[in-house]
Amino acid sequence: MARKKKQLPLLTNIEITGVAAEGKALAKVDDCVVFVPYAVPGDVVDLQVTKKKHNYMEARVVRFEKYAEKRVNPSCKHYGVCGGCKWQILPYEEQIKYKQQQVEDNLRRIGKIELPAISPIMGSANIYGYRNKLEFTFSNKRWLSYEDMQAGNIPESMNGVGFHIPTFFDKVLDIEECLLQDDINNQLRNEVRRYAEQNKLSFFDLRSQEGFLRTMIVRTSSTGELMLIMVFHEENEFQRTALLQHLADTFPQITSLLYVINPKANDTITDLPVHVFKGNEFMYEEMEGLRFKVGPKSFYQTNSLQAYELYKVARNFAQLTGDELVYDLYTGTGTIANFVARQAKKVIGIEYVPEAIEDAKVNAQINNLNNTYFLAGDMKDILNKEFITQHGRPDVIITDPPRAGMHQDVIDTILFAHPQRIVYVSCNPATQARDLALLDEKYKVKAVQPVDMFPHTHHVENVVLLELREA
Prior knowledge:
Blueprint: E1 10-15, E2 18-19, E3 25-29, E4 32-36, E5 44-52, E6 56-66, H1 92-111, E7 133-139, H2 146-151, E8 160-165, E9 168-174, H3 184-198, E10 213-220, E11 226-232, H4 237-250, E12 256-261, E13 275-279, E14 283-287, E15 290-294, H5 304-318, E16 325-329, H6 335-340, E17 346-351, H7 354-366, E18 372-376, H8 379-382, H9 385-391, E19 396-399, H10 408-417, E20 421-426, H11 429-439, E21 443-451, E22 461-468
């Protein structure tokens, strides 16, 4: 006999009091923390508990008893379903206030180290249209909300192109309008959908791994260039050529029209050839007179204007005079390395992805930088005592690791190298705080600068300057 599922409680007249991780809000009920999406401090709500543990609960709002005074209406028509941009209902000045708080809480609570006054967060000049890259997925089983199904609002076609619904790998929300990138992303996506429906092109089935249209990637640049990458699950030369030619004719502003055939079970294209249908195989970004070549597989910070502000902070913290040997760890395509190279004696960049290192080398050549050296490999394997002995002790280390932070072996090697300064750029203040605690035996935090790269989300970048303690 099946075990009866325990009924979870309905909580009434609960005031939302704060902001938590992952863009959720929080409340307290009888000393138990409740995490709630799509609410803001000051809201008074009725909550249906969806998960209950001994020290916390998760819940969804079923009724608003009172709206917070500082709540604003979301600009996006897909808000609350898409899963992204959860903080649209907060004024931007409130968003960055909570991001500042997030950085301070993580550094103090997890790091437990001596800190200077944390500088006010640098907000983004653009809070919409700031992204230079978006990827959309095609699906023949578009997401329907509970309300749509209850009301019988079932569309004639179940095809959709948009974003994955959180926690549902095979469900895609059909996106009519995304405000995070220039409106060209909407024009392209909506025209591809219209053409595909009219010409009966099959949309991908994520479960059975069948269908023609798989994903599309739109990249824009600060130089005005436009790249569209169409990814097909299978080759059909007639359908492919007809669609791509239609897009070339309809959108003459496309400077790079590319395509990929991806028959694999995952969406990554890093290991697949990219074909040029029309235009260039890459585009350029510019920053302070430097040009950076961006290909279909290249990593480049997705907020171009704010990336410039971030890199300026990192360079200022490095305090370069032209005589320093700089190590740039997790260099990616060498953007930071090349950005600071004109103020350094030599910059050595290390990155795990070989293709990214090749891009870094090309970018150094484009900008006539002959004092950079790039290597590909696992950071914890490359950066060791023998590497330091061979290449010299760095005066400055700049590190920009992934969200997981730095491996213990990397931290040990940095401590062995004992550079005068470390500039730590992080997209995850929690793991950054953990690493700062491990560096604390030899280094003191001298400056902290949060930077908002992603308005309307909970994500925040943080730059920390560490200086060698006096012996």
